[in-house]
């Protein structure tokens, strides 16, 4: 379905980003990975699916590095056909205790980076009259939780950016939508599981159960593979008139 197309997935050396990158690769898309830590393992996992793989280590909090990454994709692969804005971090603290530099980092990585990649990807997508922009928001783009001020603000912001981008491209072959996962057991969430286990003096398993029970009625984690299949749907021809939605995959979290 995506043969000959190139997908750039930010923050894809781990977790949800890597899951989405692999799902798009299974559809034939060439993949550009981005993110910190080991890139060789993820590159090999994607290459094993029979597509071309690139990598750029841009720090998504730095606009000049984001620009360099977008040039790299254009020069190496021709164009970004599918843009998945996924890189994200979390910081948990009450508003009055929230370190201002953590606020700035969360907003820069979880929100502003998507503005930069989107503004830089759109001209070539418009020329081709085809493109898919998928913003990985969160249930926290739809509802709030205590002690996540920067994250909730950034995720509500990216849902807004999604809607504006969808409106500005509504008469073209470009769509923009957001995915809103509930709990997904990635390193980002494992840190919160660990913090709860330490605070309550309970096991890792018990901490996971309690985390799910607080918010997610299905009592099950959503998986990167499931989110990857939702991204594939947004890229499909059947998804071409799905525009500006914030689609939750959250075990019933925001139905409550
Ligand atoms: P993760 O920690 O497994 O992966 C985050 C990725 O972002 C990694 O590849 C990391 O290297 C990269 N990254 C972090 N800072 C970066 C920076 N400055 N520049 C470039 N890359 C950077 O986390 P995840 O759970 O897979 O999260 C991916 C996205 O999904 C995030 O936007 C997160 O907010 C969102 N999300 C996660 C959950 C969940 O339960 N895990 C739920 C809803 C939404």
From TrEMBL:
Highest taxon above the source species: Bacteria
Coiled-coil intervals, chain numbering: none
A biological-process GO annotation: monocarboxylic acid metabolic process
InterPro entries assigned to the protein according to its UniProt record, in alphabetical order: 3-OHbutyrate_DH, NAD(P)-bd_dom_sf, Sc_DH/Rdtase_CS, SDR, SDR_fam
PROSITE patterns to which the protein is assigned, alphabetical: ADH_SHORT
GO molecular function, one term: 3-hydroxybutyrate dehydrogenase activity
Assigned protein family: Belongs to the short-chain dehydrogenases/reductases (SDR) family.
Protein name per the record: 3-hydroxybutyrate dehydrogenase
Species per Swiss-Prot/TrEMBL record: Ramlibacter monticola
């Amino acid at each position: 379905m995506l043969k000959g197309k190139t997908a750039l997935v930010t923050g894809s050396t781990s977790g949800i980003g890597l899951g989405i990158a692999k799902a798009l690769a299974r559809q034939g898309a060439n993949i550009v990975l981005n993110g910190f830590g080991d890139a060789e393992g993820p590159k090999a996992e994607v290459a094993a699916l029979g597509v071309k793989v690139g990598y750029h280590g841009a720090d998504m909090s730095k606009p000049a590095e984001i620009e360099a990454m977008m040039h790299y994709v254009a020069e190496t692969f021709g164009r970004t056909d599918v843009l998945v804005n996924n890189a994200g971090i979390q910081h948990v603290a009450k508003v009055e205790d929230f370190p201002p530099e953590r606020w700035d980092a969360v907003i820069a990585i979880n929100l502003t980076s998507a503005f930069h990649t989107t503004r830089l990807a759109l001209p070539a997508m418009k020329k081709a009259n085809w493109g898919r922009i998928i913003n990985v928001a969160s249930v926290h783009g739809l509802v709030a939780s205590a002690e996540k001020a920067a994250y909730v603000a950034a995720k509500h912001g990216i849902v807004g950016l999604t809607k504006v981008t969808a409106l500005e491209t509504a008469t073209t072959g470009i769509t923009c939508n957001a995915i809103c996962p509930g709990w997904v057991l990635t390193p980002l969430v494992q840190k919160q599981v660990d913090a709860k286990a330490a605070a309550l003096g309970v096991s890792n398993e018990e901490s996971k159960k309690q985390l799910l029970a607080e918010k997610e009625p299905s009592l099950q984690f959503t998986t990167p593979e499931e989110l990857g299949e939702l991204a594939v749907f947004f890229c499909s021809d059947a998804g071409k008139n799905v525009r500006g939605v914030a689609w939750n995959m959250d075990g019933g979290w925001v139905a409550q």
